[in-house]
Write a structure and sequence with these properties.
- This protein has 107 residues and is an alpha+beta fold.
- 21% of the residues lie in helices and 39% in strands.
- The strands form 2 sheets. It has a 4-stranded antiparallel sheet. A 3-stranded antiparallel sheet has the order 5-6-7.
Length: 107
């Protein structure tokens, strides 16, 4: 992130159990996983956007929302890990329902 000058990086296949955040001197890592070390999404923020975090919400192991304080309005970022086409229709439909829920929360 330092070399490319990225302030924020979305992650898929984090494979962490549960949900939470880790903060170090230079970075904040937010993650959302399930009961197993599978799937999972996350986000790494450096110092600048870390100071602006108003909150984060975990919808499930495929959808994470981070709200940043901004001017003139706040910014909602949704990180997703979409299922591939070989998954069954029920799992794909559930993903899109959760994605729509996340979009409403992030407004």
């Amino acid at each position: 992130m330092e070399r490319t000058n990225f302030n924020l990086l979305g992650l898929s296949e984090v494979r962490s159990k549960g949900a939470g955040g880790i903060t170090s001197d230079n970075y904040t890592i937010l993650y959302s996983g399930g009961d197993k070390h599978q799937k999972g999404v996350g986000m790494i923020l450096n110092k600048s956007p870390s100071k602006a975090i108003k909150g984060f919400w975990t919808v499930n192991d495929r959808v994470l929302i981070v709200k940043l304080e901004g001017t003139p309005f706040d910014i909602g970022i949704v990180q997703v890990y979409a299922p591939t086409a070989d998954k069954d229709n029920a799992e794909i439909e559930e993903f899109y329902e959760n994605f729509e829920k996340a979009m409403k929360i992030s407004e």
